[in-house]
Design goal:
The chain is mostly beta strands and about 150 residues long. About 0% of the residues lie in helices and about 40% in strands.
């Protein structure tokens, strides 16, 4: 994740933005999480996902999936197949994962904003999946996501 437009890295009035690269055959934006109410641990933010999906070796159109499901007080059930240059609006609800189909790398730009006075990116992980986050500390970063040197590029 590239947090170029988050509160820690860009001074702005409302907008929060970041980029995510998901290598082919992998998941991101997981565990499912939400930010649809204002609490001590969560900020109310609508979110827009803009996708770019790499084509296959013969130019085949790439695709992936994105899921949004109901959170307390917010009914929504969406499992969307996404393609290159698609946009998906997440007004509320648990969202995640985004899934890059095998053979097709996925990029997405997340742009968020909300009505709150504080510009903050506070989320609540889905209680059934929150434990997954604690497993990340012991995992190595996927080398496909590390910056390349000029010689490697």
């Amino acid at each position: 994740m590239r947090n170029f437009g988050t509160p820690d890295s860009l001074e702005a009035a409302k907008i929060i933005a970041c980029e995510v690269i998901t290598p082919a055959g992998n998941w991101s934006s997981y565990p499912a999480h939400k930010h649809d109410e204002t609490t001590e641990t969560e900020s109310e933010l609508e979110e827009i996902y803009y996708f770019e999906i790499a084509a296959g070796p013969g130019g085949q159109p790439g695709f992936g999936f994105m899921r949004t499901s109901s959170s307390p007080g917010h009914e929504i059930e969406v499992l969307e197949e996404v393609h290159d240059r698609d946009i998906v609006l997440v007004p509320y609800g648990w969202h995640g994962p985004c899934v890059a189909a095998p053979g097709f790398d996925m990029y997405y730009l997340n742009v968020m904003a909300g009505p709150g006075v504080e510009r903050a990116w506070k989320i609540t992980d889905h209680p059934d999946h929150a434990w997954v986050r604690s497993t990340w500390e012991s995992q190595a970063v996927d080398p496909r996501l590390l910056p390349q040197t000029v010689e490697e590029a």
